[in-house]
Amino acid sequence: MTGRSTSSTDEPAAAPPTTATPRAIDIRQVRADDFRYLSAIARTGTRRSAAIDLGVDHTTVSRRIHALEKTLEVRLIERGADGWELTDIGQAVAERARAIEESLQLAVDAAVGGAGSALRGTVRVTAPDGFGTLIVTPALARLRMQHPDLSVELLTATRQLNLHQSGFDVAIAVGTPVNSRLVSELISTYSMGIYATDDYLRQHGTPDSIEDVKNHPIIFFVDSLLQVGDLDLERHLPGARAKFMSTNIFSHVEATLAGGGIGLLPAFMAKPYPELIRLLPREVDVHLTFSLAARRESLTNPTVQAVRHAIHAEALRRKSDLLPPVK
What we know:
- This protein is an alpha/beta fold and 327 residues long.
- It folds into two domains: 27-111, Winged helix-like DNA-binding domain superfamily/Winged helix DNA-binding domain (Arc Repressor Mutant, subunit A, Orthogonal Bundle); 117-327, D-Maltodextrin-Binding Protein, domain 2, CATH 3.40.190.
- The protein has 13 helices and eleven strands.
- The strands form two sheets. Strands 3, 4, 5, 6, 7, 8, 9, 10 and 11 form a nine-stranded mixed β-sheet that branches.
- The N and C termini lie far apart (58 Å).
């Protein structure tokens, strides 16, 4: 990054380097409102989105972040591959700064006689495509309807969770993320199996063993782009090779329905389609997990807790779909 003014560039001016020696900062020089701009960057991940969220122009966001960095004498944000990312110090500051927004809202509620227990503001959740659409979406939709002042943003993609990135309040991941800044918990175990249509099997034969599966085109993820160890094809179908690959699980389902091969699909994704026949259910019954992760400092946030409970409740309600008995 450069040391130019943010009034004419996307790059914030360089803050003085941090040192191991604690610095004496006059708190009277710190503008509490500037922390709202840092929280918006943490929440949205982009300067322009933060500006829209706050109802200001993007240059104001840059200017206020720069002012906060200058006052605190630390680097708070840096340019990442997908937008702005908070530094380790910036993340720690942003998490604690959320209390400022919450206290402000409580003060407003007290002034206007509003219900202090109502959820409001914006919550951002990231989740894999399939689970995010079929399980998380109805959970969050019902939660939002219970709290009209709450806005929900759901980002879906089946990819490795970047545990250092900002821009989410709650993350759903395949497997268990391991990071000292995150607290994770099991949501549900789910089953994956191999499926094909009757038309495909009539034309290409029905495999009688896992060894036979190697002779069929497999429909699965683009391995080089996935980087999720628990979804390694070789681990579940040794020797099999994917011939139709997509980063989107819904494409896997559609390709299998179209007779494009044998799909390795989550049972809850295949269930709505009776034309999909599960093959070798006892030999290929892959059990994986979905986990929910949130930053340690966010766990006491009422909105994060409400999202957590809503997703757990929906996963429990859909337990027989996620982990059906093997016949």
